[in-house]
Amino acid sequence: MRIVLAVGGGIAAYKSAEVARLLVKAGHEVQAVLTASAQEFIRPLTFSTLTGKKVITELFSESSYVEHIEVAREHDLLLIAPATAGILARLANGHADDFLSTMYLAFTGNVVLAPSMNDNMWSHPATQANLALLESRGAKIVSPGDGFLACGTTGPGRLAEPEDIVAAITPKSDLEGETILITAGPTQEPIDPVRYLSNRSSGKMGYALAEAALNRGAKVILVSGPVNLKPPAKAEVIAVRTAVEMRDAVFAHLEGATIIVKCAAVADYRVANVSQQKIKKTAARLSLEFDPTPDILAELGRKKGDRVLIGFAAETENLKQEAERKLESKNCDMIVANLAAAVESDTNEVMLALRTGETISLPRASKREVAEKIFDQVLKLRLAMSAHGD
Ligand code: CTP
User: Fold this and answer.
1) Does one domain contain both 68 and 114?
2) Element of type H or E holding 176
3) How many domains would you assign to the chain?
4) Ligand 1 pocket: which residues have CB below 6 Å?
């Protein structure tokens, strides 16, 4: 691949020399770009020596004043590591005031951002909003890790490890041959012809799982409750409204599925006597009676055969205990537990409870990154299960 490696001005700039070395070693052609601030931390000579190419350090060179357009046209991928808070803000707002920001606007290939900064700068709503905007425009984010930061604090903000950054740009096809049945979004249970009972689920996690699975070569069947999201182009999408419709769609597609991810926030109750006419307002208290809905995940647990079954648990307390309880009671291979507050957010922080007895905490990251890590664990789990003859 022809890659532009742009280096921002942060202390982690020294790690991007290792990123350059690994990219070259993997056979990529690398054009390094150093922002003015990056040059305060690391010299162009380091990158020209590692990449065998002259490093771009300014918007206007003596030989060409359209170099930013040529570089954009001639490369397949733009990797920015470290991507500082300043770079994220300038890219999100479309500034064109140095080589990197100008070239970014002209660039039509894939963009990968590996941010690094102080933990408070990382958590600031402005940074998070810029990241979400860039991600919604197609950029892939390699989130920073948690740890000791150069500013003396400990928290999220440490540049991802060079190996992980390079792995993130390498396309995977490790889900080829799998058919993954994913449920997403809320269900809506009617009360009368104009009203319904539902929950705050946005469907973002389920759709991110579908995108990640498709990208890694799987066939995806997405059974989706009502959401305001664009369905992934290559997925087979089945739109449902109620828990009963979701159950029927899931079991109609169970046969060919090899992995099932039950991400939907299914209503636990439905109105017992749905009114055929609009309920009229009166001065009296109104009571509704509810019946339980079918527990789709529990039924899947009984009928799953050798399929890998992944359930979700949205909790307000006792995350670990609840995850382990649901793993057992619904006969799942993995429960992905998160705090209920995450349902509307673009990011998520989850704990995975696995059939092997292990629990894994994943740091807060975009839902797409969390989806990738869930599938990494699914593949590991499948290997562990087959080794034990499970
Ligand atoms: N689920 C389901 N069918 C239902 C309810 C839930 O398939 N009628 C699935 C969800 O898709 C999710 C998992 O069960 O994967 C856990 O959902 P959650 O609402 O957290 O758990 P409940 O089983 O409803 O348990 P509790 O109310 O005790 O938290």
Assistant:
1) yes
2) none
3) 2
4) 243, 262, 264, 266, 268, 293, 295-297, 311-314, 326
Same domain, 200 and 334: yes
**Nearest C-alpha to atom 4 of ligand 1 is from which residue?**
295
CA-nearest residue for atom 21, ligand 1, is 313
- Which of 26, 151, 194, 279 is catalytic? The answer is 151
Query: Within a domain: residue 173?
Result: no
What is the SS3 assignment for 243?
Answer: helix
pTM, whole model, 2 decimals? Answer: 0.83
Per-residue pLDDT tens for 224-283?
Answer: 999 999 999 999 999 999 999 999 999 999 999 999 999 999 999 999 999 999 999 999
The CA distance from 211 to 93, in Å, is: 26
- Ligand 1 mean position, distance from CA 289 (Å): 20
Q: Give the tens place of pLDDT for each residue, 136-173.
A: 899 999 999 888 888 888 888 999 999 999 999 988 89
> Which of 168, 201, 235 represents a domain boundary (last residue)?
168
What does 322-377 look like in DSSP terms, one character per residue?
HHHHHHHHTT-SEEEEEEGGGGGSSEE-EEEEETTS-EEEPPSEEHHHHHHHHHHH
Cα 265 to ligand 1 centroid, rounded to whole Å:
7
CA 93 – ligand 1 centroid, Å: 40
Nearest ligand 1 atom, CA 292:
8
What is the extent of the structural domain holding 23?
Answer: 2-168
Is 263 in the active site?
Answer: no
Return the ligand 1 atom nearest residue 322 CA.
29
Q: Whose CA is nearest to atom 3 of ligand 1?
A: 295
Q: Measured between alpha carbons, how far is 388 from 390 in angstroms, rounded to an integer?
A: 5
Concatenate the DSSP letters of all residues of 84-144 into one string.
Answer: -HHHHHHHHHT--SSHHHHHHHH--SEEEEEE---HHHHHSHHHHHHHHHHHHTT-EE-PP
Q: Which of 168, 203, 231 lies at the terminal end of a domain, its last residue?
A: 168
The residue whose CA is least distant from atom 9 of ligand 1 is 297
> 333 and 204, same structural domain?
yes
CA 297 / ligand 1 centre spacing (Å): 7
Q: Mark whether 335 and 368 lie in a shared domain.
A: yes
